[in-house]
Amino acid sequence: MMPLALATDGAQLIPAALDPTALATIESLLADLPPGQPGLRLASLPALASMLRATGAIGRHAAAHQGTTTKAVRAILFDKSPATNWALGWHQDRTIAVRTRIDTPGFGPWTLKSGIQHVAPPQSLLDRMLTLRIHLDPVDADNAPLLIAPGSHRLGRISESAVAALVARCGTHACLADRGDIWLYATPILHASDAASNPRHRHVLQIDYSADDLPGELNWLGII
To answer: Helix, strand or coil for residue 24?
Structure first.
C-alpha cells in the first residue's frame, strides 16, 4: 500500500519525528496534568515554545507546508486507556479556540469548551489549517488508531447526513503509529476513533497550526 500524502489524501505520517530526549521533555511537562481525561484542552504550553515554533522540532513540520508564519493555535491531550476507552463517530473539526468572544461577521456559532471560547470560522480558514498528532505511545490496530477518510479534506463543510456516504466513497485508513511519530492532517478531514479492542494507554498531543491572522480584534487563543 502506498503511503498517504498530505496534498492528495489529507494526511501524512512523519516517522520517528521526535527523538527520546524530545519525548521525555514533553512527557515531563504533561506529567502534572489531571490523569484519566479523554480529551484535555490546554490553554497554554509555554514550556514547549521552542518545539512548537515554526523552526522547532514539532512546528517545522507545519512550516514545511504553511510557511514560516505558521503558529500553534490550539492543543489537546488525548489519553485512551482501559478506564477511558471511548469511541468517536465520523466527524470534521469545525471550531477554533480564541482568547475572547468578539462577535465577528462570518464567525459563529460560539461554544465554551473547558472554559475556552470556541467559534466556527469560515470554511476557507479551516481548509488552510493543519493538525499535528504527536504520538507518545505506540498505536497498533487494536489500540484505537485514528481512522480517516482519505481525500475528504477537499470536500468543504460536510453535512451530517452526507458523512456516511462520503466515508464509504473515500474509504478509510487506520493511522498506525510508533512512539515519536507525528501524523500530519488537513484539519477538516473526516475522522473517527473506535474503542480499543486491547486497551492500553494511548497518549496523543494534538496541535493545530495556522498561518492566518484572524480579522478585526479576534485573536487566536495561542498556546505559546
So the answer is: helix
Cell of 96: 477554533
- C-alpha grid cell, residue 135: 504520538
H or E element, residue 123: helix 123-127
Contact of 11 with 154, CB cutoff 8 Å: no
**Cell, residue 196:** 480499543
Count of residues making up the chain: 224
Question: What gap in Å lies between CA 11 and CA 62, rounded to an integer?
Answer: 12
How does the average pLDDT of the chain come out, rounded?
93
> Cell triple for residue 67?
510557511
Alpha carbon distance 130, 186 (integer Å)? 5
Which is it for the CA torsion 26, 7, 108, 214, positive or negative?
Answer: positive
User: Phi/psi at 153 (nearest 5 deg)?
Assistant: -70, -15
What is the C-alpha separation between 163 and 159, in angstroms, rounded? 7
Q: Give 127-185 pLDDT, tens digit per residue.
A: 999 999 999 999 998 888 999 999 999 999 999 999 999 999 999 999 999 999 999 99
Cα–Cα distance for residue pair 64/66, rounded to 1 Å: 6
Asked if 209 contacts 187 with a C-beta cutoff of 8 angstroms, the reply is no
Q: How far apart are CA 139 and CA 103, in angstroms?
A: 40
Backbone angles phi, psi at 206, to 5 degrees: -105, 125
Burial class (CB in 10 A: 0-12, 13-18, 19+), 42: buried
